[in-house]
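> call design_seq(struct)
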């Protein structure tokens, strides 16, 4: 087994783009089409509610002392159906795209159209994306519960808890960053 090279890993994407420019163009086109579809779904299913939710979130961020999360909670149910449609769609598209990007680096002989395929690599990527999402969700629930408890007991330490939660999220993200390579 050859030794792992950080430089090789860091520049693998640039090398893949230089050696397979057609695949890069296909991925960009696919990404644009997917974003247009996702945005159309969101606007079609929850356009006004999404605008209202964005405005409320922005107002809350600018004035934390008078923030009222209940207003945001009232709008969220009208946005939820759009999220329930785009979440699985995004997970599947991401899995296919990540598998194609891995394939161009790890198995360049299996070209096809932009290295897109549907197989076990894509299923593994989908399972991995779901697992990472569940880990992130569980981590956020635990972190916010701990921050809430800390804030209730000793309010001045709550920002420190938020900083610790952000550091933990960065740590876990870095540890899982190479998990997406097949």
């Amino acid at each position: 087994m050859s030794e792992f090279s950080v430089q090789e890993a860091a520049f693998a994407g640039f090398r893949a783009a230089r050696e397979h420019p057609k695949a890069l163009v296909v991925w960009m086109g696919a990404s644009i089409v997917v974003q247009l579809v996702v945005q159309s779904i969101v606007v079609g299913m929850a356009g006004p509610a999404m605008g209202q939710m964005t405005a409320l979130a922005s107002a809350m961020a600018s004035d934390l002392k008078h923030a009222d999360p209940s207003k945001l909670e009232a709008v969220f149910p009208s946005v939820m159906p759009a999220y329930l449609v785009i979440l699985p769609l995004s997970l599947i598209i991401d899995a296919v795209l990540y598998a194609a990007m891995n394939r161009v680096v790890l198995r360049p002989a299996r070209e096809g159209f932009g290295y897109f395929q549907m197989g076990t690599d894509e299923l593994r990527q989908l399972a991995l994306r779901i697992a990472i999402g569940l880990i992130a969700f569980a981590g956020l629930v635990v972190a916010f519960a701990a921050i809430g408890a800390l804030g209730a007991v000793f309010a001045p330490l709550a920002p420190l808890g938020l900083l610790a939660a952000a550091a933990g999220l960065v740590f876990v993200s870095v540890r899982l960053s190479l998990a997406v390579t097949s």
